[in-house]
Write a structure and sequence with these properties.
This protein has 95 residues and is mainly α. The protein is built from three helices and no strands.
């Protein structure tokens, strides 16, 4: 197997694993709106890290790293939604 093919397969396997590992928690939080056990800085930093990885995937030369971009697009959107729910529950809803 050629090195670039192996590299690409590893990227997609890692992407699928990350999304499948992260998505159930995000979906459960979105459904239940329960954020009691969630640390606000965790989801904030996950969102920021995801944005940076998306930029890395898009700006990579000579070609876009789609596995890196798509994975981090999904996790960033979920992180920002969960972050928003957490902020709402902890600071806005309390008032």
């Amino acid at each position: 197997m050629e090195q670039s093919t192996f590299y690409e397969i590893c990227g997609w396997v890692a992407s699928i694993g990350l999304v499948l590992g992260y998505l159930p928690q995000a979906i459960q939080t979105m459904r239940t709106r329960n954020t009691d056990g969630i640390a606000l800085p965790t989801f904030l930093m996950t969102g920021i890290g995801g944005i940076c990885f998306m930029l890395q995937g898009i700006l990579h030369k000579p070609e876009i790293l789609w596995s890196l971009f798509i994975t981090n697009l999904i996790t960033t959107v979920c992180s920002l939604v969960v972050f928003g729910i957490k902020v709402y529950n902890d600071y806005i809803k309390e008032k």
